[in-house]
């Protein structure tokens, strides 16, 4: 059935007129008030910047602009950033290739090939462990599911990119090379550069 708009009669509130006064129609006073607010913030920020930069008053902070990438906004401690594989003391992966993370991953972006571990006390080791970050939705399920605490998302690295889909696949070696971020979330490892973005 075709739907039709229903006309609604809106009552005019007492003491309120829909007509703008002459002063409101020119907006002159409102424009001047707006300019005053802008000028107030401009000069107040400039004064705080001067105190901070010239007179080294560390507590005086000007506008809230973050000078990224030289300056980074502190990240929340629970932020999920680029994955890393945790290493044992001998540098080998803590991962035992149990496939729990691969199974739980809703984006199907973890690819593991298991191999026998040289140590008979450890059953398996990942011969290959790839994460396709082009598909990852950063849900953190892989971290939650891991029984060995072998995968974490605490590198603080968020600026990874690539020119191709293949470049978004991070290998076991790349993930093992990453370190946890500092307590304020600043990365300690450089952002991994995929092969297609390396200078030739
Ligand atoms: S964060 Fe989620 S989507 Fe990404 S690899 Fe882990 S389980 Fe898969
Ligand atoms: S869940 Fe943990 S131990 Fe199992 S394959 Fe994934 S990273 Fe390795």
List keywords for this structure.
binds iron/sulfur cluster, three-stranded antiparallel beta sheet, alpha+beta, Alpha-Beta Plaits, 5 helices, about 200 residues, two-stranded antiparallel ribbon
Any overview of this molecule?
This protein is an alpha+beta fold. Among the domains are: 22-53; 84-182, Alpha-Beta Plaits, CATH 3.30.70. It has five helices and five strands; from the N terminus they run H-H-E-H-E-E-H-E-E-H. Strands 2-3-5 form a three-stranded antiparallel sheet. A two-stranded antiparallel ribbon has the order 1-4. The longest helix is centred in the N-terminal third of the chain and has 26 residues, at 28-53.
